[in-house]
Fold:
Amino acid sequence: MSTWNSRNRHKYLLQYHIIFVCKYRKQLFLLPGLSDKIKELSRIICVRHDVTIKYMETDKDHIHYMMEFPPTLSVSSLVRTLKAYTTYHVWRSEFADRLNQHFWRERTFWTDGYFVCSIGSVSEKTLKEYIENQG
Structure:
């Protein structure tokens, strides 16, 4: 299990399991290399916002994250930032033509919603195994 994080005047251990689903549940992660591109973009934005991605894995139409981040960052703002950043950059990548075949009217990638739960009632090991066995 992780240790407590310390900041100026507080200690914390905030871990979340977050899931994003591809728009219309399209099985986009079957496209070769797209999963790696989304993971790379996710890592970039998380480093900028002091977020630790403990585990991350994709299935055919969704991505799972297990993350740790400070209480100064809200879940909703992180989700909004991650979705916007990955969508913007994946459409400007080598996958744009393939995405146009699926989303010909709009430059979208994710559904509007998301799933999040705080980690506490399940062990980190159990969640790690679950995420790593996706796909």
Observations:
- The mean pLDDT is 93.
- The radius of gyration is 15 Å.
- The domain at 11-132 is CATH 3.30.70.1290 (Alpha-Beta Plaits).
